[in-house]
Amino acid sequence: MVSPRMGRRIEKFRRIVDRLSYLASKDAGELSDIELDALERNVHVLVEILVDMGNHVIAGKGWERATTYRDVARILGKHKVLSNDEARLFEGLIGLRNVLVHLYADVDLDLLVKIVRNELSSWVSLFNKLLEYMVRESIDP
To answer: pLDDT tens, 46-75?
Structure first.
């Protein structure tokens, strides 16, 4: 059982996945400026949800403190919450978030659409893995 707060995060994540699935089903040239902005923002929020969940796992288990977003992925890998491949995937996703946040003027939107199209199912798998771990270990923010 998850708390109402966690339930809201789960629903938010699912809405984001639905939006990203729709947006990534088109080519960037077919998307309006508003849709492209929505694509960028939803990828950003998706990563924030995953990092937030990871931080809750780390804090709930009393593990070393993450000082960067990438540390979250590394710590989860170190403690076998995520496999090495999943931790690398998470680090790459965090890197994508950093590009969106810090290099937003230089984002290649065609490439972003392709990344979302190809990687969204892997991001959902990361979310499910973290959620299952949180439920199993009774870690609920």
So the answer is: 999 999 999 999 999 999 999 999 999 999
**Between helices 109-136 and 84-102, what is the axis angle to 10°?**
130
Residues 103, 23 contacting (CB under 8 angstroms): no
Structure tokens at 117: 């199209």
Task: Give residue 70's pLDDT.
Answer: 97
Question: Which is nearest to 47 in space by CA: 89, 110, 109, 108?
Answer: 89
- Alpha carbon dihedral 104, 110, 111, 115, in 10-degree steps, equals 100
The predicted model scores a pTM of 0.94
Q: Which of 46, 43, 45, 81 is nearest to 61 (CA)?
A: 81
Q: Any idea what DSSP says for residue 141?
A: -
Separation CA 82–CA 102 (nearest Å): 27
103 Cβ contact list (under 8 Å, min separation 6): none
Residue 95: CB partners within 8 Å, gap ≥ 6?
Answer: 70
- Provide the CATH topology of domain 4-136: Four Helix Bundle (Hemerythrin (Met), subunit A) (1.20.120)
Which residue do the tokens 């059982």 mark?
Answer: 1
